[in-house]
Every structure is written in structure tokens, then in C-alpha cells.
């Protein structure tokens, strides 16, 4: 297994299969690569099925045991089932999707080897949903969640970004997962770095505080040291798990970051928040990909805590050490 100089072993990879999307969510960071707006048809810049599989085979050689497929909207890839089918057996396969294409396709993905799915659902109301996603596909997403549960995906996590437009929904979403078996809720701290709208920020500590009051039990997940709150519904006959993903200015989160990313164009990337460490796999052979993977892992640094450090006033700023060396400025 490969580890960086901060002792962070790389156990997972996060592969973006496309930057195309049928939604236009107001907050979207597109995995650190900007805009998803553009043509819906397959694009020449996307990794081919063979490119994705070749990379996964190399990652498996380094004992990587989990892959997350994401995007853009990964289900726009017609070859998704084939990619999953050809993913090395040792890897747990999960998918993050907006859910609209799950109806009619969830079962085939499970047959191919998909084990878990996260579906982005930021509201429980079609009007609010449309405002956030710029799409009227609310019913399709609800159908998608149902299809995922019926296909046996376990758990089905609902992803909700907590920001100005959604913060008021948190209690209803928590009840919703407590009342519906098979669902879990993942509350994602809004990342303003990549959207340029700091005014939408919500203090995630307040959400932690509220959940701590509601919870029967609190756990820590190994990945990112994320907190998980187990909450019962009002009638006491249902219980749901709520996980908080709170990476912003959180050195503990970064210290427990064990994944390398791959962009849809086949660039290896050591950190979501950085684009100055990209390494193209282009036409590389397997031995060359092995070398590139080693190099990207070796150059990984915890973003908050090393790449960005706190000054005397407690503000985060770029560590001088990386100016020029990585940041290219
Ligand atoms: N900054 C940062 N954000 C992350 C990281 N991992 C997840 N996130 C945020 O959380 C969002 C949701 O992640 P998902 O793809 O649903 O899944 P996950 O939380 O990574 O993994 P699972 O919970 O195991 O399914 C991502 O799109 C990011 O916004 C990370 O390592 N760094
Ligand atoms: C980029 S999307 C790609 C997968 C798929 N299209 C979807 O929406 O689930 C992956 C996740 O990133 C989250 N996300 C996007 N922009 C974000 C931001 N600015 N802050 C926090 N999370 C964000 C979304 O909510 C979604 O759950
Ligand atoms: S569905 Fe996912 S990729 Fe598409 S715009 Fe929304 S968050 Fe971004
Ligand atoms: S180092 Fe920190 S910001 Fe970068 S991907 Fe890992 S957890 Fe996210």
C-alpha cells in the first residue's frame, strides 16, 4: 500500500467519469473542475472504458480497495455497467449520482457489482428542489432512490449540501431518513472555495450541535474522522444515521484523507481543492501509470494544516513552502 509523507495510506480512489451533467446545481464544484454546463453527448476528452479499467487495475496492485465513481453525472456514461463489471474484484464499488437515471438501470448496475449509492437530494419539495438544481426532475430523483432500495443497494445515502438554501430543511431530512429503512443522510458542508459565493455559507458547527442534542449515539468514521449521529424518529419506531462531511478549514479531516482522485480526462489529482498537482495519464502504459500513481501519492499534502496554514490571526493562508513549488505563483 502506498502512503504519503504524512503517513496517509491511499486506500481508495475517486474517479470522475464525465464532467457533463443534466442538472445545473447552484453550488456545484464539479469535483474541483468548475462548470458542468455544456453538451450532453459523450465528449472526446473523457477517459475510455479501457482507460478507466487500466487505471483501476494499477490501483488494485497497490492494494486500493475502494472506488467511488462520480462526475459530473456518472450515469450519463452508457458504459457505466461495463466499467463496474470490469473493476477489480477486491474493490468496493460505490457511486454518487443525482439519481435521475437510476429508475430502470439500478438493477443492472447491482448485477455488474455496484454495492452502494449516494443520491444527491437537497430538498423534500419539488419547488425548492428546482431552485437548487435548476431542474424539474424531483419526481425522477425520488423514483431513483426507490429503485436503488429495491435493487438491494445498501445503504442508500442521501447527500444534502448544507448552505443558505437548504439549512432549514435539515430537521425534515433527518426525520425522513429515520422513518425510511435503508436510507442514511450525509450532510455536506458547503464549500465556497470552488463556487465564489461565501455568502451562502452556514456554520456547520451549529448543525453538529443540534444533532448532538438529538442523537442516541455518536460514532466516528475512520475516513476523515467524520462524525455519525444516530437519531430516532418522534414515534421511536425508526432510527437513522446522519453523517457530516465537514472538510472546510478542518485539518483533522485532511489528516485522515486516504483517496486519490482521477478527473474525467484522466488526470491524477491528489486533493479536491488543488489543480496544481495534476498528472495526465494520457496514453500511458501500465508501468507508466504505476510510476505516475506513485508520484502523485508521494506529493500529496494535507490541504488544511500543511498546504494552507493558519496565521497569527487564525486566518488560513497558503504555506510559503508551496509558493512556487506547487502553486505555480
Ligand atoms: N474537500 C473534500 N471534500 C470531500 C472529500 N470527500 C468527500 N467530500 C465532499 O463530499 C461530497 C460527497 O461525497 P460522496 O461522493 O457522496 O461520497 P463520500 O462522502 O466521499 O464517500 P462515502 O460516504 O463513503 O460514500 C463530495 O462531492 C465532496 O463535496 C474530501 O476528501 N475532501
Ligand atoms: C459534484 S457531484 C457529482 C455526482 C452527482 N452528479 C451528484 O450530484 O451526486 C458530487 C457531490 O458533490 C456535492 N457538491 C457539489 N458542489 C458542492 C459544494 N460547493 N460544496 C459541497 N458539496 C458540493 C454534491 O452535492 C454531490 O453530492
Ligand atoms: S447533479 Fe451533481 S454534477 Fe450535476 S450540477 Fe448537481 S452537483 Fe453538480
Ligand atoms: S487533503 Fe483535505 S481538502 Fe484535499 S481532498 Fe483530502 S480532505 Fe479534501
Automatic annotation (TrEMBL):
Catalyzes the cyclization of GTP to (8S)-3',8-cyclo-7,8-dihydroguanosine 5'-triphosphate. Belongs to the radical SAM superfamily. MoaA family. Pathway: Cofactor biosynthesis; molybdopterin biosynthesis. Its cofactor is [4Fe-4S] cluster. Binds 2 [4Fe-4S] clusters. Binds 1 [4Fe-4S] cluster coordinated with 3 cysteines and an exchangeable S-adenosyl-L-methionine and 1 [4Fe-4S] cluster coordinated with 3 cysteines and the GTP-derived substrate. SMART domains: Elp3 (SM00729). InterPro entries: Aldolase_TIM, Elp3/MiaA/NifB-like_rSAM, MoaA-like, MoaA_arc, MoaA_NifB_PqqE_Fe-S-bd_CS, MoaA_twitch, MoCo_biosynth_MoaA/MoaC, rSAM. Gene3D superfamilies: Aldolase class I. Its EC number is 4.1.99.22. It catalyses: GTP + AH2 + S-adenosyl-L-methionine = (8S)-3',8-cyclo-7,8-dihydroguanosine 5'-triphosphate + 5'-deoxyadenosine + L-methionine + A + H(+). This is Probable GTP 3',8-cyclase. The keyword Lyase applies. [4Fe-4S] cluster 1 binds at residues 21, 25, 28. GTP binds at residues 14, 68, 96, 157, 259-261. It comes from Natronorubrum bangense JCM 10635. One of its GO terms (biological process) is Mo-molybdopterin cofactor biosynthetic process. [4Fe-4S] cluster 2 binds at residues 254, 257, 271. PANTHER family: MOLYBDENUM COFACTOR BIOSYNTHESIS PROTEIN 1, MOLYBDOPTERIN COFACTOR SYNTHESIS PROTEIN A. Keywords: 4Fe-4S, GTP-binding, Iron, Iron-sulfur, Lyase, Metal-binding, Molybdenum cofactor biosynthesis, Nucleotide-binding, S-adenosyl-L-methionine.
